Amino acid sequence: MQFGIFTVGDVTTDPTTGRTPTEAERIQAMVTIARHAEEVGLDVFATGEHHNPPFVPSSPTTMLGYIAAKTERLLLSTSTTLITTNDPVKIAEDYAMLQHLADGRVDLMMGRGNTGPVYPWFGQDIRNGISLAIENYALLHRLWREDVVSWEGKFRTPLQSFTSTPRPLDGVPPFVWHGSIRSPEIAEQAAYYGDGFFHNNIFWPIEHTQQMVDLYRRRFEHYGHGSADQAIVGLGGQVFMRANSQDAKREFRPYFDNAPVYGHGPSMEDFTAQTPLTVGSPQEVIDRYATMREHVGDYQRQLFLMDHAGLPLTTVLEQLDLLGGEVVPVLRKELAVGRPAHVPDAPTHASLVAKAGGAQEATVYAAGDDVTGASPEVATVTR
Questions:
Q1: pTM of model > 0.85
Q2: Pairwise CA distance, residues 215 & 69, whole Å
Q3: How many CB atoms lie under 10 A from the CB of residue 158?
Q4: Given CA atoms 107, 293, 6, 284 in this order, what sign does their dihedral have?
Q5: Which of 54, 79, 305, 349 could tie 11 with a disulfide, CB 3.0–4.6 Å?
Q6: pLDDT band per the 50, 70, 90 thresholds, residue 67
Q7: What single string gives the DSSP state of each residue in 299-363?
Q8: Is the peptide bond before 166 cis (omega within 30 degrees of 0)?
Q9: More confident residue, 350 or 366
C-alpha cells in the first residue's frame, strides 16, 4: 500500500494573517513539502498541472525533475497530467526523460482538468474533452511501446514513422493512473488498458466513489487483466490533525471557511460528514481511513491533500510529521490485515521491469537529422 500527498499548488491568502505568499515562495514551499514527505516515510509526492492563477504548477516535469535530484526514494507522480490539452508526443518525451533522470521513480496520472478555459488556451475545444482523452492516450500508449509509430487521428497532425525520444527506461513505460471524478468513460479507459484508476473523491460521498471503482473493477476483469479485486485503485483524501480534536477543528475552521473551492459553502461539519475530509486527532483519521476498503475493496494508493487553502508551510510540515509518524504506520498495518495474497501492490518501475522479464536496452540507434527528419524506419533501427 502506497501512501503519499498531492498538491494543487494554490497561492492562497492565509485567512488568519492576511498574508499571501509569492509564487516563488509557494514553489519553494512545494519542494520543501516533497522533501519532507520523504523524510517522514511517505511513498509518493504528486503535483497537479494548472495554467491559471491562483495555481503555480504549470510545468510538473520541471518541478519533479528538481525534486528527483533532491530525494532518493520518493515516488514522483502527477495529479494530474492534462491528456486533453497536452500533445501526447510531448508527454511521451517529457515523462520518459523524467523517468531516466529519476531512475524510474516516476508514474503519472492522466486527467481532463477542471478548468474549462484551458482548452482554448491550448487550441482545443472542451466539448471534445472525453474524445481527446481517449484518442491522445491511445497515441501515447503506442509511442511508449513502439519504436516507430505511424498515426492518424482526429485531433492532431498525422505521424509518419515517428520515434519519440528518449525511449522509456529499461524498455518499460511509466505506470499510468487515469484520474476521474465522475466520467465512466475514463474508468472504462483505465480498465481497457489494464492501467490504474484514481478516484479523487475529496468532494464526493463514498457511495459515488464506490460506484465508480466498482465499474472500473468489473471492466478490468472483463478485459482479461485479472480478477476484479486485482485492479489497481487509488483514492484521494484530506485531513487536518492536532493531538486534541477540538484544537484541530478550531485551527482549521478559518482555512476551511475561506478555501477557494469549498469556502463559504457547506459547514465544515457537513463537509466532513459527507466527504473524506477528516478534521480531528490522528486516531480519528486512522479510524476514518481504515474503513475505506470496506467500500472500494483492497486498494493500492492513498494520497492526501495537505497544503492548500493558505495553510502556512510550518503547519503543513507539522501535519506531515503527524501523517508519517502516527497515522500511516498504523494504517499500513491495519490495511494489510486480511488483504488477500493475490491482490497486487501498486506497480513500481522495479516490479514492471520484473514483469517484463528484465530490463531491456531500449535505445534507438538510427541515422537522422533535423533537416530531413529521416526516420528510423527508413534508416534502420539498430541496437
A1: yes
A2: 39
A3: 9
A4: negative
A5: 54
A6: very high
A7: -SEEEEE-S-TT--HHHHHHHHHHIIIIIHHHHHHHHHTT--TTSPPPP-HHHHHHHTTS-----
A8: yes
A9: 350
